[in-house]
Amino acid sequence: MARAYLIRGLLVGLLAAVFAFGFATVFGEPQIGKAEQFEIALAHQRGVAVHAPMVSRGTQSTAGLATGLAVTGTAIGGLFALVFAGLHRRVIRAPARATAGAVAGAGFLAVFLVPFLKYPANPPSVGSPDTIGHRTELYFVLLAFSVVSLVISVVVQRRLAPRFSGWDATLLASAVFVALVAVAYVALPGTNEVPTGFPATVLWRFRVASVGIQVVLWGTLGLAFGALTERQEAAAVGASAMAEVGAER
Amino acid sequence: MALPHVADQPSIPIPAPVPLRELAPWAALFGLLFLLLVYFVGVEQGALSMFGGHYVHEFVHDARHLLAYPCH
To answer: Do B7 and A232 touch (CB under 8 A)?
Structure first.
């Protein structure tokens, strides 16, 4: 069973990356192009020589982007499948499509949105090479904190569910998550390295495109993984009750 | 994943969860592998570097920016 989930997760992750690549090409790349133009114009203004990149822009925006998204999408798909396998019918007692939707929504929230709202995506030419170490550290500290907070809030929900209604328990657990994240937002230092004169519309559209890519990634994962799993379960149940106990894989 | 043989008795339509004992080795091994893959796209040759140079960083440059990893 674990193996079947894993393979399904990898394939669905790759599919998600294909959709994300289409989205990124249409909505993300034009903004990266404009940011690169700004960088070049700024260098000219300062009289600094502009070196041709080691990998051409044409390769970065096509094969490079596709590779980066494919690797990330497949890896996230695999991690998604492992988490799904651990929770489905154990912690989340719901049909596969609902479990997959919940895991995808939680992943989008904890792995992407919470770190993003404090340390948003930046186009090229925003961000100093001198602070990359510090910024990376902060980003992953917040990401780890966010994931731990999510786990804590799920545990809280499970503890409260017998005493309150499921709905109230979920609301209280959500409040715990929001409170924990708020503490981290206040405690961690902010960063802002947008250079003076950088076009605001480019920054805004780049960040919206960045959110869109993640919606496409996690949305495809949740919908496709859930639908495929439910179809497989229906087939397995139809075939035999005993076979489903795990003996067949 | 449909099984080839036909049902010979009515079944309970609730499959059991994957046993944790079965899942654990998969999760440990592949979980690390997947995190390593994310690292290569998101961080390698930026803040941290296993291999020298900038090729990995430049090649996945656009994906790294668009996926919201800190970059420059």
So the answer is: no
